[in-house]
Amino acid sequence: MTLPLEQMKAFIVDKTRSNAVAIGDKLPASTVDGLFQFRENGGWVGSFWTGLNYLCYELSGDETFIEVARRSRHRFTKRLYQNPETLDHDIGFLYSLSSVADHKLTGDAEARQVAIDAAKALAGRYHEAGRFINAWPVWHPGEEFSEGNRGRIIVDCMYNLPLLFWAAETTGDARFRNIAEAHADTSAHTLVRPDYSCFHTYLFDPETGVRLRGTTFQGYADDSIWSRGQSWALGGFTYAYRYTGNKLFLDRAVGCAKLFIRELEADSVPMWDFRLPSKEGEPRDTSAGAIAAAGLLELAQLAEPDDAALFRAAAERIVGSLFAHYATVGAPEEQGLLREATGFRSRHVEVNVSLIYGDYYFAEAVARLLGRTKAYW
Ligand code: GLY
Fold first, then answer.
1. I want to staple 140 with a disulfide (CB 3.0 to 4.6 A). Which of 136, 180, 265, 302 is the partner?
2. Measured between alpha carbons, how far is 113 from 229 in angstroms, rounded to an integer?
């Protein structure tokens, strides 16, 4: 498949460059009427803007993007050292695409130290008996789930593990890797169902760590398949395999990937959940497509040749469709790169908008197709 990769690159780089003026040192999350809204401390998404700028540096060679990414550095250090109570398991997302990315690209020593301290905070959430990293504190939005949060994992956490794997490599401290591998193993046996579809979350007895049951938070139903969760699993198990060589994780990555590909709509972009009783009036989630495309391209480098060809072809179809049908090309009044992303459909929050993480993963997939990223995970 021939994709207009240079056009895609120019679109990503130009729009990110022009957004930088309005965004300054703030951390964009999602759009309202085409304009990014900000979260005070970045929520769980704060690093996707910084990550996007580091990618644009790799795509363009323009060092201004490094300077833009670093404008919000003070927010990440303040949050980690002064307001750690605002952090949960998404520390991995937050510090992989800010501090780790900076260190990988520039060798900056302070960025490395911040990332190591972030990894320590993530490791501190580990539940020894249950062999998992607890996801959320009891104060997480969603009151009815608060008590359950004392013993909960969510599939998204698979993408938080690379921070620990990276920390093990850079410090030589195997504990980081052991925790990440144990969490991935527990996830492989709880979150992934026999047909390789995934629960969004899984509950454990908070005292004993005994496994209880799979549930959802953002999906349509406990037994449905939230498409973004499936894309987190696909990529997350891929990285767990890349760092450990543990074939269990390759099995889960390949199975989750094949299911994701089978469930795509005719235009190769997913609905927000793959088990809706009716698709009538229901939105797509382009962010799930973008996350999956980036993960499939990594997985294609690790899988057996036949699978690798399938995954690369699927990633190209997704990226091609996202650009042809969902990108804000020719719409300078819209700050996001991709339309029709859906954050939390069940609560009517962030439906059919641009999401900064959808934009980041679209850019990551394009950078991978161009062979132009060191990859920060
Ligand atoms: N990690 C939260 C989400 O995907 O919405």
1. 136
2. 30
